[in-house]
Design goal:
Layout: E1 2-8, E2 11-17, E3 26-30, H1 37-45, E4 52-54, E5 56-57, E6 60-61, H2 67-72, E7 75-78, H3 90-95, H4 111-115, H5 117-120, H6 132-145, E8 150-154, H7 162-178, E9 182-187, H8 190-196, E10 199-204, E11 207-213, H9 219-226
Parallel strand pairs: 3-9, 3-10, 7-8, 8-9
Antiparallel strand pairs: 1-2, 1-4, 5-6, 10-11
């Protein structure tokens, strides 16, 4: 993102925001509620148009592209609240990720069940019958079915039991280590973000107020800026 400004009507949500996500790294975006984190994700994924600035992806300007075109170019999102389809089965939810793939690649890789073994035992169950933690795993797996090169996660630990949070952290770290995917993680849980982050970005009032490599930042300062 370069110098992005975003409005909701007359309300200014993002002010001159610039941000970079790099393959093989986890960029963690932190901030209190209402500072613009979700607006930033909506700009990246094409859910909401920007007023000014540009969004570049793999050397191309995608600022004017609709959401489905960005998905075809390898940008996948796991939204806050998961947004799985409650009346579809787990298998059918996973298969919704096929829409952006060529026909010859429309299959759920067996590796997905190595990452999320619980889903293999629940393929015939409706998404709405799963626990919150299981639904979060399903939402991440559905995004990975799309074979993304940028994975955007909006508060994946929200309302999740500690054991599942550890599993999600392990999976994010594994995806990072492969080196072929950029990961943008929006979090409120600082310790979870700190342990995974390559770079930490802090927002306040629609602006980026802190941006640096994890080991270069004062973590106490970061914690103060994001605490309620």
């Amino acid at each position: 993102m370069k110098n992005v400004v975003l409005h909701y009507g007359a309300a200014l949500a993002l002010r001159d925001v610039s941000l970079t996500a790099v393959p093989g790294e986890v960029t963690c975006l932190l901030g209190r509620n209402g500072v613009g984190k979700t607006s930033l994700l909506r700009a990246i994924t094409g859910v909401h148009p920007v007023s000014q600035g540009s969004i570049l992806w793999e050397g191309q300007d995608i600022t004017a592209l609709p959401q489905f075109e960005r998905a075809r170019r390898g940008i996948a999102t796991v939204p806050q609240g998961r947004d799985i389809f409650p009346l579809l089965t787990v298998r059918e939810n996973l298969e919704t990720g096929f829409a952006v793939l060529p026909r010859g690649q429309r299959r759920v890789p067996e590796e997905m069940f190595a990452l999320f073994p619980i889903l293999k035992t629940m393929l015939g169950r409706r998404g709405g019958d799963l626990s919150g933690g299981q639904q979060q795993q399903l939402a991440i797996a559905r995004a990975l079915v799309m074979k993304p090169r940028l994975l955007v996660l909006d508060e994946p630990t929200e309302g999740i039991q500690p054991s599942i949070i550890k599993d999600i952290g392990r999976i994010i770290d594994l995806l990072r280590s492969r080196g072929d995917m950029a990961i943008l993680l929006v979090e409120q849980y600082f310790d979870f973000a700190r342990d995974l982050a390559s770079r930490i970005v802090v927002m306040d009032r629609g602006e980026i107020v802190l941006n640096g490599l994890r080991d270069e930042l004062d973590h106490d300062d970061v914690r103060r800026r994001v605490s309620v």
